[in-house]
């Protein structure tokens, strides 16, 4: 997975390039809005 900080979208928004099905599987929870809870 490659992160890009170039001006391609909204300010402060990161663009991520997924290069394999495994990287898509890793990113899917984030794309769907999953926010893990921090342990106490």
Helical run tally: 1
Number-wise, the strands total: 2
Q: Specify the overall morphology.
A: flat
Please tell me how large the radius of gyration is: 12 Å
Question: What gap, in angstroms, lies between the N and C termini?
Answer: 30 Å
Give the ordered list of helices and strands. Answer: EEH
Q: How helical, in percent, are the residues?
A: 25-40%
pLDDT averaged over residues: 78
The total number of structural domains is: 1
The spatial strand order of the largest sheet comes to 1-2
Q: What class would the helix/strand composition place it in?
A: alpha+beta
Tell me the β content: 15-25%
How would you portray this structure in words?
The protein has 40 residues and is α+β, with helices and mostly antiparallel strands. It has one domain (2-31). It contains 1 helix and 2 strands. It has a two-stranded antiparallel ribbon with strand order 1-2. The longest helix has 11 residues, at 21-31. The model has no long low-confidence stretch (mean pLDDT 78).
What is this structure, in a nutshell?
The chain has one helix spanning 21-31; strands spanning 2-4, 15-17.
List keywords for this structure.
single chain; 40 residues; alpha+beta; two-stranded antiparallel ribbon; flat
List the helices and strands and how they pair.
Blueprint: E1 2-4, E2 15-17, H1 21-31
Antiparallel strand pairs: 1-2
């Amino acid at each position: 997975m490659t992160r890009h900080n170039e001006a391609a979208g909204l300010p402060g928004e990161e663009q991520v390039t997924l290069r394999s099905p495994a990287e898509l599987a890793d990113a899917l929870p984030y794309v769907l809005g999953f926010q893990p809870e921090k342990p106490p």
